[in-house]
């Protein structure tokens, strides 16, 4: 290992994150009753300009009135971008009036580390002024060419940062990529045209102890397309994926839950390596395959995720 120590962000189960427009309060209780690990109440792109202020009031009310944490949810609010005049009031009003009930703020279209610095500075003042006893986390959407060009610096920008999210629709727009549907694949491209962006963001996350979350898949009538995208993200190392419709929640939970056989196998690897260590050996064989300390690190990842899921459901 490097002498440089990576500080891990606060751990939260994050297999599925349901997007809920702040302008549709009739969906809030349904979101709380869903099986999503995470919910974000949206003030940004799912809310029309004329609805921005009413949506902000709805979200403030819902943070206080709905028992998100009692429903096993991490509750987040997506504020408007730093290039809009809505953003400062989103942050100030939401945290002043409902900060005690808020877990994280999701910042869209982050381009440079200074974007996170600005949010961090405001949150720090708000927390002090309101006497909040918990620290509100920050999550950043990487969804522009500028954000991706600076993703390593963004990932390292603040100890308040917990996760980066890949926002495929805005990213496609920013890059002028030719796409057919949000998060879908263009058959003109041989393979997955999002691979290099997903992979780059994943490495930036892991190098800074952050969770990596894959964004939306817009065609909610195509569960197979959703599953294929989620599985590609999971194979790279992603922790979870957005659900833009309730039908996508269980699909994401399934893909990002390690299968029982994988968990059992991981526990066997750890046991075999403990026995090998007791006999003074670092490497061992299990079922005819070599295992060593790297296998133990992979196995521990699987077991820790499984234990977090067991803790949630018990
Ligand atoms: N959260 C909670 N419940 C939701 C929901 C959501 N995001 N989206 C739909 N539902 C509910 C509906 O109210 C309906 O409930 P009911 O069975 O009690 O009537 C049920 O799930 C089925 O919904 P459906 O009729 O298929 O969808 P819709 O036409 O009401 O809405 C969307 C479709 C896409 C407009 C809606 O799902 C949505 O707004 N998604 C989030 C969009 C978003 O946030 N985008 C920004 C991030 S990319
Ligand atoms: Mg976006």
Task: Walk me through the structure.
By secondary structure, the chain is an alpha/beta fold. It has twelve helices and ten strands. It has helices spanning 28-33, 52-65, 87-98, 113-130, 145-149, 151-155, 168-175, 195-206, 223-236, 249-255, 260-278, 293-313; strands spanning 16-21, 38-42, 74-78, 104-107, 137-142, 161-166, 211-214, 240-243, 284-286, 289-291. An eight-stranded parallel beta barrel has the order 1-2-3-4-5-6-7-8, surrounded by five helices. The longest helix has 21 residues, at 293-313. It is globular and about 65 Å long. It binds coenzyme A and magnesium ion. Magnesium ion binds next to helix 7.
Briefly, what is this?
This protein has helices at residues 28-33, 52-65, 87-98, 113-130, 145-149, 151-155, 168-175, 195-206, 223-236, 249-255, 260-278, 293-313, and strands at 16-21, 38-42, 74-78, 104-107, 137-142, 161-166, 211-214, 240-243, 284-286, 289-291. It is α/β, with parallel strands linked by helices. The mean pLDDT is 96.
Figure out the total of helices.
Answer: 12
- The side-by-side strand order for the widest beta sheet comes to 1-2-3-4-5-6-7-8
**Shape, principal axes of CA atoms:** globular
Mean pLDDT figure? 96
Low-confidence regions: none
The helix/strand series, from N terminus to C terminus, equals: EHEHEHEHEHHEHHEHEHHEEH
Helix/strand/pairing category: alpha/beta
List all distinct small molecules, including ions and cofactors, that are bound in this structure.
Answer: coenzyme A, magnesium ion
| Helical content class | 40-55%
Please, what is the oligomeric state?
Answer: single chain
């Amino acid at each position: 290992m490097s002498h440089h120590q990576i500080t891990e962000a606060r751990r939260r189960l994050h297999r599925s994150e349901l997007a809920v427009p702040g302008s549709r309060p009739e969906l809030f209780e349904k979101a709380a009753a869903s099986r999503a690990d995470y919910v974000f109440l949206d003030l940004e792109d799912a809310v029309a300009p004329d609805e921005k202020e009413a949506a902000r009031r709805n979200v403030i009310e819902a943070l206080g009135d709905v028992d998100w944490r009692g429903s096993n949810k991490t509750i987040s609010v997506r504020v408007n971008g730093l290039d809009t005049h809505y953003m400062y009031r989103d942050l100030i009003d939401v945290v002043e009036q409902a900060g005690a009930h808020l877990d994280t703020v999701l910042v869209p279209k982050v381009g440079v580390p200074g974007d996170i610095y600005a949010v961090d500075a405001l949150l720090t003042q708000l927390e002090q002024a309101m006497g909040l006893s918990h620290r509100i986390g920050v999550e950043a959407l990487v969804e522009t060419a500028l954000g991706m060009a600076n993703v390593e610096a963004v990932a390292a920008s603040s100890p308040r940062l917990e996760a980066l999210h890949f926002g495929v629709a805005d990213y496609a727009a920013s890059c002028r990529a030719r796409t057919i549907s949000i998060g879908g694949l263009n058959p003109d491209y041989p393979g997955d045209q999002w691979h290099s962006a997903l992979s780059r963001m994943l490495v930036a996350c892991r190098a800074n102890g952050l969770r990596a979350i894959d964004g939306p898949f817009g065609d909610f009538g195509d569960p197979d397309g959703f599953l294929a995208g989620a599985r590609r993200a999971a194979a790279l190392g992603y922790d979870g994926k957005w659900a833009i419709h309730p039908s996508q929640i269980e699909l994401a939970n399934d893909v990002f839950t390690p299968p029982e056989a994988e968990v059992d196998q991981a526990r066997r690897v750890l046991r075999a390596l403990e026995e090998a260590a007791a006999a003074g050996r670092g490497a061992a064989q299990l079922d005819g395959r070599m295992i060593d300390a790297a296998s133990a690190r992979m196995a521990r990842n699987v077991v820790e995720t499984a234990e977090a899921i067991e803790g949630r459901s018990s």
